[in-house]
Automatic annotation (TrEMBL):
Pfam families per record: CbiA
All copies of domain CobQ/CobB/MinD/ParA nucleotide binding, residue ranges: 4-181
Name by which UniProt lists this protein: ParA family protein
InterPro entries assigned to the protein according to its UniProt record, in alphabetical order: CobQ/CobB/MinD/ParA_Nub-bd_dom (IPR002586), DNA_Partitioning_ATPase (IPR050678), P-loop_NTPase (IPR027417)
CDD domains per record: ParAB_family
Keywords for this protein: Plasmid
Length: 220
């Protein structure tokens, strides 16, 4: 089993969106997946509530560090944990990272998002020797390939590990929480194609990263 924390000490970077859509793709791919909402803001819970029984994964809200410390006892292949983006809820975030095997750190192409990312990696991820990848998210295609490449260079120059794949900005992704939908529910139309492609690519990349990395001692 793997416990994946989606983290970053900044709001609005795509933690909740990444948790819901990557979990959906990996659940449809045959994994038993649990999504845990450890963010007191409860966005994931609201989204999952709108989706109801149709979601391809199980779901549980829990911000209690004692419960989060015991996630590994649960019968799943993958547990994705959505975490708080504010600096106050550090005991919850610490409990999640103490149990996690892997961390996904979404990054939007906004200069003001860089410092919180670096701080999260240096203060919370690296001290725990956790494997992680930065996920470039919400990419505005109108800014062009050079803009994206500049940002890949910024992440690389900071010495941070990142996914080779990224997630573009798409209206279907923004609208989906309202109807409780996740990317695996999208019909294969022109406006949905980028989101379907991007989340599938990132999920495949995750599986190839994990195929080369042993799970933590004690894990099943
Ligand atoms: N790839 C994307 N395409 C379109 N909208 C996105 C994308 N990623 C995130 N968003 C939007 O950005 C906002 C913040 O995302 P959210 O997942 O709530 O971030 P966080 O959980 O880090 O606060 C939401 O309105 C969400 O719909
Ligand atoms: Mg969120």
């Amino acid at each position: 089993m793997r416990i994946v924390a989606v983290a970053g000490q900044k709001g609005g970077i795509g933690k909740t969106t990444s948790v819901m859509n990557l979990s959906a793709v990996l659940a449809k791919g045959g994994n038993r997946v649990l999504v845990v909402d450890a963010d007191g803001q409860r966005s994931t819970t609201w989204w999952a509530g709108n989706g109801g029984e149709d979601l391809p994964f199980d779901f549980a809200p829990d911000v209690d560090p004692k419960n989060l410390a015991r996630l590994r006892e649960l019968p799943y292949d993958l547990i994705f944990v959505d975490t708080p983006g504010n600096l106050e809820a550090t005991s919850t975030l610490s409990a999640v990272l103490d149990s996690a095997d892997f961390v996904i750190l979404p990054l939007v192409l906004d200069p003001l998002a860089v410092q919180p990312l670096v701080r999260t990696v240096k203060s919370l991820v690296e001290p725990r020797h956790l494997d992680y990848r930065v996920l470039l998210n919400n990419i505005d295609r109108r800014r062009g390939d050079a803009h994206l490449q500049d940002w890949e260079g910024i992440v690389d120059n900071l010495g941070l590990a990142r996914f080779k794949n990224h997630v573009r900005k798409s209206a279907s992704v923004t609208d989906a929480p309202l109807t409780g939908r996740v990317v695996t529910d999208y019909t294969d139309t022109r406006q949905n194609r980028a989101a379907i492609f991007d989340y599938n690519s990132v999920a495949l990349e995750l599986q190839s990263i994990w195929a080369n990395a042993p799970v933590q001692a004690g894990a099943i």
